[in-house]
Amino acid sequence: MSQRRYEVVPIGWVESPLVDRAEAPRQGDEGAPPAWLVFEPEMADAIRDLSVGDQIIVISWLDRASRDVLSTHPRGDVDRPLSGVFSTRSPDRPNPIGLHRVRILAREGLRILVSELEALDRTPILDVKPVLDPIAER
Amino acid sequence: MSQRRYEVVPIGWVESPLVDRAEAPRQGDEGAPPAWLVFEPEMADAIRDLSVGDQIIVISWLDRASRDVLSTHPRGDVDRPLSGVFSTRSPDRPNPIGLHRVRILAREGLRILVSELEALDRTPILDVKPVLDPIAER
Q1: Across the strands, what pairs with B106?
Q2: Which residue of A99, B35, B42, B67 sits 20 to 30 Å from the alpha carbon of A114, by its own alpha carbon?
Q3: B-chain residues within 8 Å CB-CB of A29?
Q4: ipTM of the complex
Q5: pLDDT band at A99; cut points 50, 70, 90
């Protein structure tokens, strides 16, 4: 079964002032700037109900990550012992998928401005999901 | 840019009593059973620090979903108006990536038992990440 592969197709891209991985915050709430999500025109129907104020999870493809890393020092701190990557949020992992919980600040057609996104400029976007509140109605 | 494609490689597979999509709960906390995550042998180093009690996010590839759906009735309820899929948790979406927040119940080598997983039997696993508590130390 290990021979199976699946293909992901970007639905859009990040536009951000962050261009250098060394300068990017490790998590969105550690000082990341707002950023635009720019969707492909064919996704217009899929994004039509995303509204200002919504809390969403953006799923990105961290295209500048290394895919052959299996253990790492958490937060790049060599004073911390090596951990298996599935116990860390390092972008370097077999499938470099990023999860970003953000809030929608503005919309202009296919462009959606979100808060505190630590993804680099031109990072591909794979999916957007609503945040599920276990208490609220689904 | 829309011509780019990326390839994801399963790091393991779900073993679950759930085999029929029509019977599966829509979310893990709606009665989903425990399930085993069975990792590929080459992932041993990456999973080595996953421990009983950990809260993790399992990222799956919902391989039985339809990828050409852009709007849907939330929770399959035709009495609810059509929504853009990025405002729903429907498995049918351009990149059918599943997010599952679960707790580790047991470990046996490459096999990890987790709570309340609504993914179907043999669903590919793409990634595992620790749950980040915004208050706790990172």
Answers
A1: B113
A2: B67
A3: 134
A4: 0.91
A5: very high
